[in-house]
Amino acid sequence: MPRIRESTLQEHRAKTLDQIIAAAEAILRTGGRGQLTMAEVARRTNLARNSLYRYARDTDQLCDMVMERHLPDWGQALEQALDQTDDPRRTVEVWTRTNLEQAGLHGHGWLMNLYAEQHDEQLRQTLIYGTPSNPQEPVPRSDRSTDRQAQALLDFHRQVNQPLIQAWTALRPADPAMGVEVTRGIVQSGMRLIDALDQQLAPGQRQERLTLIIEKVTACAKAVTATLTEGPTCA
Predict the structure, then answer these.
(1) Which H, E and C letters describe 79-142, residue by residue?
(2) What integer pLDDT is reported at residue 116 of this predicted model?
(3) pTM summary value
């Protein structure tokens, strides 16, 4: 048998790992976290089960890998867009538009819902505001997630949400939470609309509908910003 050079072996492993991550992502996009199994990933990649375990110890680690593929690009795109303005009203608008654009590129529901207990209120507060409700408590996580997963998701949400929190603190010092919550609600509704786009649409049609969603939802966020910054703030 000819000797495999180290560089060739490394390339082979890198290609195999990429196929594994792609297979895991495809399952998560279409079936959700509950459908992701090592057996199904092995079947889709034509790997023996024991070979798959050389790349990932379990499905939790596969989720790590999928998340790490998308979150850095999303966060970087948001940082670059927000670097163009220091006006808090404009920040809310850019924050809305950029997150919707990234949702259109990467998907949203399947990526943000990797963790079954994410709706837990303590975890929700941690993800939105970046710190646990009780600083003495550890970062909350679902039974399915690892500490590394929970921390990675927390870091991403902190990176995403902090500019919005800062903008609304400048706009409504006495009550920034209302602006944060309402803006996030608008963006999440837009992301659900994006998630619901027919995957069978031709690329041009999908882009046209995606652009319309982004424009309309961003306009809603701008209108809400105007409304919440006019007159006295709510108690």
Answers:
(1) HHHHCCCCCHHHHHHHHHHHHHHHHHHHCCHHHHCCCCCCCCHHHHHHHHHCCCCCCCCCCCCC
(2) 42
(3) 0.71
